[in-house]
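Figure 2 data, in text form.
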Amino acid sequence: MVADSTVFVTGASQGLGREIAVAFADRGANVVLAARSDGIYETEALADAPDRTLALETDVTDSESVADAIDETVEAFGGLDCLVNNAGIAGPTAPVEGTIDDEWLETLDVNVVGVARVTRRAAPHLRESDQGSIVNISSIGGKRPYANRTPYAASKMGVIGLTRALAAEFGDDGVTVNAICPGPVEGDRIRNVFERQAEQNDVAAADVEAEVRESLTLDELVPPAEVAELCVHLAGADSRHVTGQDINVSSGGAWY
């Protein structure tokens, strides 16, 4: 059951993270909205469940910030049942020789180490739960990488590997660990990616989008609600034997 469980969602200030957080709140869960941006307060208002939502300004690259947020979650709701590691950045758009170490380190720190950092702090509480689950948001970019996105591709492939290792570690305690690999999700973030790719290749953003759509079996960008619904499903009672998986929601953008 998702109702009455406690869910911690990183990157909950906008886009996919906001959609995921609101979906859990709609199902009756206690939801912690964690992100660096004050957009979490807008997400809290959209969830419209003041007794069951808690907005916490949290930086997944800062161990102390993460520790404080997890501790406050447990104090407020009495435990933790589900962790959704959604926080992530796009990284640079450039050929590999045009990237610098700082860009690589930032992308990996947010997208991979950030997942491990939050999971490490949440682990004891998830192990104590009767329905513990972790859902990591990866990307089909970690399976079918795009040109000029090497740090992002490496980080999202890293999330898949981390997911499999964590599933093995948490299995004895009945905690499921899965990754969702969205394709291009409709919203401001993918529009910004199209614009950066267009600038890099000296073409129109509309041409980049058309090329991406042509690579998809369904020729449609992914509605964020479909990713959110899968998160809720993976945290629920009907998915207790689904673990160690990386599941695509990609309009057919990846088949494995």
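Caption note: The mean pLDDT is 93.
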